[in-house]
Amino acid sequence: MRRLLDVVSLVGMIAIACVLATSVAFAYEEGEAGKAVIQGIITFKGTPPPPILIPIGRIALPAYKYCSRFYHDGKGNRIIRGVTVNKGRLQDVVVSIRNITKGKPFLFTGTDVIVRGCEFLVQGGPSTFVGVVVKKAELRVLNNDADPSDPRAATGVLHHPHAYEVSGDRNTTIFSLVLIEKGDVLTKPVILRKKDSVFLLENDSPHLSKAWFLPVDNPYYAIVGSAGTYEIDRVPPGTYQMIAWHPLLGIQEQEIDVGATGTVTADFEFAH
Questions:
Q1: By C-alpha distance, which of 271, 267, 270 is closest to 230?
Q2: pTM score over 0.70
Q3: DSSP-assigned states of every residue in 175-219
Q4: Tens digits of per-residue pLDDT, 250-269?
Q5: 92 in helix, strand or coil?
Q6: In sequence order, which residues have a C-beta less than 8 Å from that of residue 170 and are 6 or more positions away?
Q7: Domain 2-271 is of which CATH architecture?
Protein backbone atom coordinates (compact mmCIF):
# COMPACT_ATOMS: atom_id res chain seq x y z
CA MET A 1 0.00 0.00 0.00
CA ARG A 2 2.88 2.31 0.79
CA ARG A 3 4.38 1.46 -2.60
CA LEU A 4 1.14 2.62 -4.24
CA LEU A 5 1.42 6.03 -2.59
CA ASP A 6 5.06 6.31 -3.66
CA VAL A 7 4.16 5.44 -7.28
CA VAL A 8 1.38 8.02 -7.37
CA SER A 9 3.77 10.58 -5.90
CA LEU A 10 6.36 9.77 -8.56
CA VAL A 11 3.86 10.33 -11.37
CA GLY A 12 2.95 13.72 -9.92
CA MET A 13 6.57 14.78 -9.53
CA ILE A 14 7.48 13.83 -13.11
CA ALA A 15 4.56 15.90 -14.40
CA ILE A 16 5.73 18.86 -12.36
CA ALA A 17 9.24 18.60 -13.73
CA CYS A 18 7.98 18.60 -17.31
CA VAL A 19 6.09 21.86 -16.79
CA LEU A 20 8.38 23.78 -14.48
CA ALA A 21 11.61 22.88 -16.28
CA THR A 22 10.46 24.97 -19.22
CA SER A 23 9.59 28.03 -17.11
CA VAL A 24 11.66 31.19 -16.95
CA ALA A 25 12.87 32.68 -13.68
CA PHE A 26 11.24 36.04 -12.99
CA ALA A 27 12.42 38.47 -10.31
CA TYR A 28 9.48 39.86 -8.36
CA GLU A 29 9.37 43.40 -7.03
CA GLU A 30 6.72 45.20 -5.04
CA GLY A 31 4.80 47.91 -6.83
CA GLU A 32 1.26 49.07 -7.36
CA ALA A 33 -1.29 46.36 -6.68
CA GLY A 34 -3.90 45.62 -9.29
CA LYS A 35 -7.67 45.65 -8.96
CA ALA A 36 -8.63 42.41 -10.69
CA VAL A 37 -9.51 39.05 -9.14
CA ILE A 38 -8.84 35.53 -10.36
CA GLN A 39 -11.08 32.81 -9.02
CA GLY A 40 -11.97 29.26 -9.87
CA ILE A 41 -13.02 25.75 -8.94
CA ILE A 42 -10.77 22.70 -8.76
CA THR A 43 -12.54 19.53 -9.86
CA PHE A 44 -11.66 15.86 -10.06
CA LYS A 45 -12.85 13.62 -12.90
CA GLY A 46 -13.28 9.92 -12.32
CA THR A 47 -12.97 7.77 -9.22
CA PRO A 48 -10.45 8.99 -6.63
CA PRO A 49 -7.84 6.46 -5.53
CA PRO A 50 -8.72 4.83 -2.20
CA PRO A 51 -6.94 6.01 0.93
CA ILE A 52 -3.73 4.28 1.90
CA LEU A 53 -4.01 2.22 5.09
CA ILE A 54 -1.04 1.26 7.26
CA PRO A 55 -1.61 -1.36 10.00
CA ILE A 56 -0.13 -0.02 13.22
CA GLY A 57 -2.49 -1.10 15.99
CA ARG A 58 -0.38 -4.08 17.06
CA ILE A 59 3.04 -2.40 17.02
CA ALA A 60 4.28 -1.97 20.60
CA LEU A 61 6.70 0.95 20.14
CA PRO A 62 5.64 4.10 22.06
CA ALA A 63 5.22 6.29 18.99
CA TYR A 64 3.09 3.73 17.18
CA LYS A 65 0.97 3.01 20.24
CA TYR A 66 0.22 6.71 20.61
CA CYS A 67 -0.23 7.33 16.88
CA SER A 68 -2.72 4.47 16.51
CA ARG A 69 -5.30 6.60 18.36
CA PHE A 70 -5.51 9.17 15.58
CA TYR A 71 -6.60 9.17 11.92
CA HIS A 72 -7.58 5.50 12.04
CA ASP A 73 -10.30 3.40 10.48
CA GLY A 74 -11.32 1.61 13.67
CA LYS A 75 -9.61 -1.58 12.51
CA GLY A 76 -6.04 -0.89 13.58
CA ASN A 77 -5.07 0.94 10.38
CA ARG A 78 -3.71 4.44 10.07
CA ILE A 79 -5.33 6.45 7.26
CA ILE A 80 -2.68 8.19 5.16
CA ARG A 81 -3.69 11.41 3.46
CA GLY A 82 -3.71 11.46 -0.32
CA VAL A 83 -6.36 12.53 -2.82
CA THR A 84 -9.41 14.06 -1.12
CA VAL A 85 -12.50 14.78 -3.21
CA ASN A 86 -15.80 16.17 -1.94
CA LYS A 87 -18.73 16.10 -4.39
CA GLY A 88 -16.40 16.25 -7.35
CA ARG A 89 -14.23 19.02 -5.95
CA LEU A 90 -10.57 18.43 -5.18
CA GLN A 91 -8.84 19.90 -2.14
CA ASP A 92 -5.17 20.24 -1.14
CA VAL A 93 -4.14 22.10 -4.29
CA VAL A 94 -1.90 25.15 -4.65
CA VAL A 95 -2.80 27.60 -7.44
CA SER A 96 -0.09 30.06 -8.42
CA ILE A 97 0.77 32.69 -11.01
CA ARG A 98 4.26 31.87 -12.23
CA ASN A 99 5.38 34.79 -14.38
CA ILE A 100 4.23 37.92 -12.57
CA THR A 101 7.04 40.39 -11.96
CA LYS A 102 5.44 43.25 -10.05
CA GLY A 103 2.42 43.84 -7.85
CA LYS A 104 1.16 43.80 -4.28
CA PRO A 105 3.57 43.49 -1.33
CA PHE A 106 4.95 40.04 -0.63
CA LEU A 107 4.92 39.64 3.15
CA PHE A 108 6.12 36.12 3.86
CA THR A 109 7.31 35.24 7.37
CA GLY A 110 8.03 31.56 6.92
CA THR A 111 6.21 28.23 6.91
CA ASP A 112 4.84 26.60 10.07
CA VAL A 113 4.03 22.94 10.68
CA ILE A 114 2.64 21.42 13.88
CA VAL A 115 3.02 17.71 14.65
CA ARG A 116 -0.22 16.67 16.32
CA GLY A 117 -1.54 13.13 16.52
CA CYS A 118 1.63 12.09 14.65
CA GLU A 119 0.43 14.09 11.65
CA PHE A 120 2.36 16.92 10.01
CA LEU A 121 -0.23 19.70 9.88
CA VAL A 122 0.58 22.70 7.70
CA GLN A 123 -0.54 25.93 9.35
CA GLY A 124 -1.90 29.21 8.02
CA GLY A 125 -4.19 28.00 5.26
CA PRO A 126 -7.27 25.95 4.47
CA SER A 127 -5.20 22.80 3.86
CA THR A 128 -3.03 20.99 6.40
CA PHE A 129 -1.58 18.64 3.76
CA VAL A 130 -0.09 21.17 1.33
CA GLY A 131 1.37 24.65 1.63
CA VAL A 132 4.01 26.92 0.16
CA VAL A 133 7.62 27.70 0.92
CA VAL A 134 9.96 30.48 -0.15
CA LYS A 135 13.59 29.69 -0.82
CA LYS A 136 15.84 30.65 2.12
CA ALA A 137 12.83 31.55 4.30
CA GLU A 138 12.28 29.66 7.56
CA LEU A 139 10.49 26.38 8.04
CA ARG A 140 9.36 25.82 11.63
CA VAL A 141 8.17 22.45 12.93
CA LEU A 142 6.63 22.19 16.43
CA ASN A 143 6.21 18.88 18.25
CA ASN A 144 2.86 18.97 20.04
CA ASP A 145 2.69 15.27 20.97
CA ALA A 146 3.09 13.65 24.39
CA ASP A 147 1.49 10.60 25.97
CA PRO A 148 1.04 10.94 29.76
CA SER A 149 -0.25 7.36 29.91
CA ASP A 150 3.10 5.94 28.76
CA PRO A 151 6.20 6.64 30.90
CA ARG A 152 8.38 6.30 27.80
CA ALA A 153 6.55 9.14 26.04
CA ALA A 154 5.12 11.15 28.92
CA THR A 155 7.16 14.26 28.11
CA GLY A 156 7.10 13.83 24.37
CA VAL A 157 6.50 11.45 21.48
CA LEU A 158 9.62 11.29 19.33
CA HIS A 159 9.21 12.48 15.76
CA HIS A 160 11.79 12.62 13.00
CA PRO A 161 11.16 15.32 10.39
CA HIS A 162 13.02 14.48 7.19
CA ALA A 163 12.99 17.18 4.51
CA TYR A 164 13.58 16.46 0.83
CA GLU A 165 14.00 18.44 -2.33
CA VAL A 166 11.96 16.48 -4.88
CA SER A 167 12.78 16.91 -8.55
CA GLY A 168 11.34 14.42 -11.01
CA ASP A 169 12.05 10.96 -9.62
CA ARG A 170 14.92 12.12 -7.37
CA ASN A 171 14.67 12.93 -3.66
CA THR A 172 17.59 14.79 -2.10
CA THR A 173 17.80 15.17 1.67
CA ILE A 174 17.83 18.75 2.93
CA PHE A 175 17.85 17.89 6.62
CA SER A 176 16.95 15.00 8.92
CA LEU A 177 16.52 15.82 12.61
CA VAL A 178 14.52 14.65 15.63
CA LEU A 179 12.01 16.32 17.91
CA ILE A 180 12.08 14.49 21.24
CA GLU A 181 10.01 16.51 23.70
CA LYS A 182 6.61 18.13 23.42
CA GLY A 183 7.28 21.80 22.70
CA ASP A 184 10.51 21.17 20.78
CA VAL A 185 10.77 23.37 17.70
CA LEU A 186 12.90 22.75 14.64
CA THR A 187 13.82 25.85 12.64
CA LYS A 188 15.61 25.54 9.32
CA PRO A 189 15.95 27.61 6.13
CA VAL A 190 14.36 26.17 3.02
CA ILE A 191 17.18 25.19 0.68
CA LEU A 192 16.10 24.32 -2.85
CA ARG A 193 18.73 24.22 -5.57
CA LYS A 194 16.69 23.15 -8.58
CA LYS A 195 14.10 25.39 -10.19
CA ASP A 196 11.82 22.46 -11.00
CA SER A 197 11.67 21.05 -7.47
CA VAL A 198 9.14 20.92 -4.65
CA PHE A 199 9.60 20.49 -0.91
CA LEU A 200 8.56 17.33 0.96
CA LEU A 201 8.49 16.89 4.74
CA GLU A 202 8.16 13.30 5.90
CA ASN A 203 8.06 11.80 9.38
CA ASP A 204 10.71 9.08 9.57
CA SER A 205 9.65 8.05 13.08
CA PRO A 206 7.04 6.84 12.61
CA HIS A 207 6.48 6.64 8.83
CA LEU A 208 2.92 7.88 9.01
CA SER A 209 2.80 11.43 7.70
CA LYS A 210 3.85 13.64 4.81
CA ALA A 211 3.35 17.30 4.03
CA TRP A 212 4.08 18.88 0.67
CA PHE A 213 5.03 22.41 -0.32
CA LEU A 214 5.22 24.31 -3.60
CA PRO A 215 7.95 26.97 -3.81
CA VAL A 216 6.61 30.44 -4.66
CA ASP A 217 8.37 33.73 -5.36
CA ASN A 218 5.42 36.11 -5.34
CA PRO A 219 2.22 36.66 -3.31
CA TYR A 220 -0.15 35.63 -6.09
CA TYR A 221 -1.06 32.13 -4.96
CA ALA A 222 -3.93 30.40 -3.18
CA ILE A 223 -4.26 27.16 -1.23
CA VAL A 224 -7.40 25.15 -1.87
CA GLY A 225 -9.31 23.68 1.06
CA SER A 226 -12.34 21.43 1.37
CA ALA A 227 -14.60 23.73 -0.69
CA GLY A 228 -12.46 23.14 -3.78
CA THR A 229 -12.38 26.84 -4.65
CA TYR A 230 -9.76 29.58 -4.68
CA GLU A 231 -9.41 33.33 -5.14
CA ILE A 232 -6.38 35.51 -5.87
CA ASP A 233 -6.97 39.25 -5.51
CA ARG A 234 -5.28 42.54 -6.39
CA VAL A 235 -3.88 41.18 -9.65
CA PRO A 236 -2.37 43.73 -12.08
CA PRO A 237 -3.42 43.61 -15.74
CA GLY A 238 -1.44 41.26 -17.95
CA THR A 239 -1.17 37.81 -19.50
CA TYR A 240 -0.15 35.18 -17.01
CA GLN A 241 0.78 31.54 -16.83
CA MET A 242 -1.15 29.87 -14.02
CA ILE A 243 -0.60 26.44 -12.50
CA ALA A 244 -2.62 24.25 -10.18
CA TRP A 245 -0.49 21.70 -8.32
CA HIS A 246 -1.43 18.63 -6.32
CA PRO A 247 1.48 16.61 -4.88
CA LEU A 248 0.10 13.24 -5.95
CA LEU A 249 -1.76 14.18 -9.14
CA GLY A 250 0.77 16.52 -10.71
CA ILE A 251 0.15 19.85 -12.32
CA GLN A 252 -2.35 21.59 -14.60
CA GLU A 253 -1.64 24.88 -16.36
CA GLN A 254 -3.39 27.53 -18.39
CA GLU A 255 -2.74 31.01 -19.73
CA ILE A 256 -5.13 33.78 -18.77
CA ASP A 257 -5.62 37.43 -19.67
CA VAL A 258 -6.39 39.80 -16.81
CA GLY A 259 -7.83 43.26 -17.33
CA ALA A 260 -7.47 46.36 -15.19
CA THR A 261 -10.55 45.44 -13.15
CA GLY A 262 -13.13 42.70 -12.88
CA THR A 263 -13.04 38.98 -12.20
CA VAL A 264 -11.43 36.29 -14.32
CA THR A 265 -12.43 32.64 -13.92
CA ALA A 266 -9.78 29.96 -14.23
CA ASP A 267 -11.02 26.46 -13.38
CA PHE A 268 -8.78 23.39 -13.26
CA GLU A 269 -9.67 19.71 -13.63
CA PHE A 270 -7.59 16.79 -12.41
CA ALA A 271 -8.03 13.09 -13.08
CA HIS A 272 -6.51 9.83 -11.95
A1: 267
A2: yes
A3: EE--B-STT-EEEEE-----TT-EEEEEE-SSS--EEEEEE-SSS
A4: 999 999 999 999 999 999 99
A5: coil
A6: none
A7: Sandwich (2.60)
